[in-house]
Batch of 3 targets.
Target 1
Amino acid sequence: MKKLLIPALLLIALLAVFVGGYLWWRENSKKVTSNETKIRFVIPKGWSATQIGNSLYDKNLIKSPLAFKVFVQLTGKARDLKPGEFTLSSNVSLVDIVGKLMQGPDELWVTIPEGLRREEVVKEFIVDLEMNSTQAAEFREQFLALSEEKEGFLFPDTYLFPRDADASVVVRKMSDTFNEKIEGAIAESIEESKYSINQIITMASIIERESRKNTERPVVSGILWKRLEVDGWLLQADATVQYAVANKNCPSGSETLRGQRQNSNVKCNNWWPILTKEDLEIDSSYNSYKHKLLPPTPIANPGLSSMKAAVFPEETSYWFYIHDHEGEIHFAETITEHNLNVGKYLGK
């Protein structure tokens, strides 16, 4: 009798757990309200199912973050939750909420790293907005045409855009964000400077490409401005030569055959080539090994730290710098010290 009683008790316990779980799920998967108001819901990049469930709960879109997590985990949907902006409503069930999320966001995140030139920026949009080949070709052509005079003024940031965003909207948003970022002390300092905003942003773009860390940028800025302003010195910034070489090899940059229509050569993937000694002799107004003045336009789109560094350089006794193979910077006051650093850290 006891042998029969134990399995019966276990069966009853399991049945109770099952019924309790079912009742819990039925209650917590119901719609929260009958209100049909649409709510903008944003999933940032990198969020887990737990974070998404908590946010849905906080916005009163679901009754239980645990129920959400359990459901997406058991159904294998957790890995398919994409970041972006969604339009949701609290008058549908949890299952319907998840179904809406599975359809994909109305707007997608696009992250533009600092220091990219226009041709690289447009590629990021094409990839992140999940364009097909036809859409990509049209968007690329429009973007490069509309941004032709805006190199350096397309602010690198993380944006939300509809997947069918027009290039004109993208260029305008990036330009407006640039203007917002330089308001205040930066804009005032530029106005008080003897340099134009184009020259300041050109220097900022060089600083962006020539430095790796925020802490080193003001020092690099001080060196470059000092070289520019002292007779007998050239900037000798490799990044400017890389820009010139890429323009020559991949004719879709801002210097391409002045006065002629630019094409959008999409086959070029090396916009920042490793330089040779021959490259340093390239005949280009962007070659800072040959020309004393700043390049005529920015060579990339700098971030805020590089803009600040260009406006607020740090005065030091340094004249030279190199980065070693690990990305650490080494400054020098004299050419002798610099050459020693080159031999020590680069093995040249």
Target 2
Amino acid sequence: MADSSHYVIRGGREGRERLRVLAGVMHPHSMALLDRCGLREGLACLDVGCGGGDVTMELARRVGPGGRAEGVDMDVAKLEIARAEAAQRNISNVQFLQADAREAAGPRTFDLVYARFLLTHLSDAAGMVRRFHAQVRPGGMVAVEDIDFSGHFTYPESSAFRRFHELYCATVTKRGGDPTVGMRLPLLVRDAGFEDVRVSIVQPMALEGDAKLMDALTLEAIAGAVLEDGLATRDEIDALARDLIAFAADPRTLAGVPRVVQVSGRRPS
């Protein structure tokens, strides 16, 4: 299994809790994307880079006992939590496997391959989408959603946010990822051989609530990578986090998540 040094955002239990908040913020938008894929009873689905398995378990619910959902991720701690949560919820048609998404093509095919916020961390996003194509049966679907960080903003302007924005993009880029991969998604999917490519853009923003916390949570989640790459000091990161939290607490400020591009496509029969 390849090492995970390319991955900027902290994993483990703390990383899982950040993903839980993010999953709640994204829930209505990701569910709308799945609605457009026409899932039904008995289908087989793959969630690549599944994290804590929030979407994987939703896929399992949608395809019912006659179908199955499989989540693949490198993070052992997150997978253990996902397995425990699936057991607590009596979801029996779901499986979580530890594997590097860049190597986990495998011989099996699925009716749907899904990935959220995975491609932005990879040096070869196009190669991964081609891998998705190989994993989708003829007539099956792919659904991907990922960020375009260039569309991330707050109102009013915040110097702490601008510095966070700079650090995030620099860290992802330094490690071979693409913080603006979202704008490339439609062509990546089409060039991989999918047809009926559909595009939507969503951007959860708020005056209060969890969406406004994502910048501070994400800053803390990338802190290890930022420090390791020598882009900021611990004191600066702590000061930025305090400022981002204070900004989020102000009901007269607008904040949320980066622009998210959602793309679906069908493999020709």
Target 3
Amino acid sequence: MIAQQILNGIISGAVYALFSLGFTLIFGVNKILNLAHGGIFMAGAFIGFYAAASGLPFWAACLLAMVGAGILANLVDLFAFRRLRTSKHGEFGTMIASIGANMVLISIAQQLSNTQDFRFPFDTIPISFFRVAGLRLSTLQVAIVILVGVLLILLVLYLYKTSFGRQVRAVAGNDRASMLLGVNPDKVYFQTFFISGALAGIAGVLIGLLFNSINFLMGDTYLLRGFVIVILGGLGSIPGAVIAGLCLGVFQSLATSYLPSDLTEVIIYSLLFVGLVFRPNGLFGMDTSAIGAVRR
């Protein structure tokens, strides 16, 4: 029973990590705590749902959710963040702007959905079950693990094996110095916001499938969990986000199974407090002046 709950926690934790990767990528490169990330996540879930409900196959729904959420993230950057980057109160200003952008996205989704909960069509992914080493797996869980693994590998290859990735790392380290080397920070910001939004969008689709529920407020819950993951893993750390996401998923699965349901969220956020006491910079954290999306 415990092994099965750990497996379930790893599956959900992998999606949490995917959501948190976009969150930490924006902070690592742009030094922005993008609190609109939850709204973009929610929008991606709705885009994927409407695509699947219209009869498109699962892969097409995922692709549309990623592209749509990526474009939406770029629009948030354009209207909420771009002019604040050079402001002397930029960090505080961008945080407030991101809260406003998140509220706008929630309000639009509330009106369009009429505050209803939605569920993906039953045949979005044909559900069947099988056993491996005594553990029960579904085709949905296998699809989630494969998809998250592929996206994580592609992200790492993009950051460390391409010229665009080198530009991202240069801007993450020092945007002004990167300009002297011929790097255009605006192009890097555009790329990172799109990637961040795309990761949030596909995470929204997977969460909607995994928990069989989509609503206009779903982004707030996962934004808080993503915040816990990013803090525990280390601001700007990609490995930290992955490991902390998996740990949080496992812990949540075990707590839900063996503890009263009303204590689960309390214990999760208590972990954040304990983590900050003993590891103020997170599991993979360093001095905040050195934070960047390139840190291994």
